[in-house]
Amino acid sequence: MIKISKIIATVCGIGFINKGGGTVASVAYCIVWFLLPEFSFVAQILLIILLLISGVWSATEVEKMWGKDNYRIVIDEVAGMMIALLCIPGKIKYVLAALVLFRLFDILKPLGIQKMESLPAGCGVMADDVLAGIYSLVILHLAIAIKLF
């Protein structure tokens, strides 16, 4: 089970990139998002829930070996990007905006995002990126609704 948890937590090894693994994982998901067929809202929510459950489990497992919220754990960035891209039109400008917003929220950790990291084990690993993804999603949907770009 340890090997499976490492594969999930590092998103097939992306987390082993020394610097910028979170950004690489976020970009990788954006590419996958473009390649996948468009899913219904319900299917997207179910995929997010599945990823969150597997992310919390795998992060909890690998934290036992690597320590609290180790840089190698990047499944949380994928979860955050999944949320940020929820029901976003398939245009590159929106995907790039989601990526920039998410990474800014994830790195700067404003508006209670940093506080989420204090949750125990894998929940804390995942929760800050979930909130960063939610903030990104809301801002992006508002920008699209008011035709900001």
Can you describe what's shown?
It is built from 7 helices and no strands. It is mostly helical. The relative contact order is 0.16.
List keywords for this structure.
single chain, about 150 residues, mainly alpha, 7 helices, about 0% strand, globular
**Helix and strand sequence:** HHHHHHH
- Determine the strand fraction and express it as a percent band: under 5%
Total DSSP helices: 7
Q: What is the first-to-last residue Cα distance?
A: 46 Å
From the alpha-carbon coordinates, what is the Rg to the nearest angstrom? 15 Å
Secondary structure: helix percent? over 70%
Q: Given the C-alpha coordinates, what overall shape results?
A: globular
Helix-strand makeup class: mainly alpha
Unreliable runs, pLDDT <50, ≥5 residues?
none
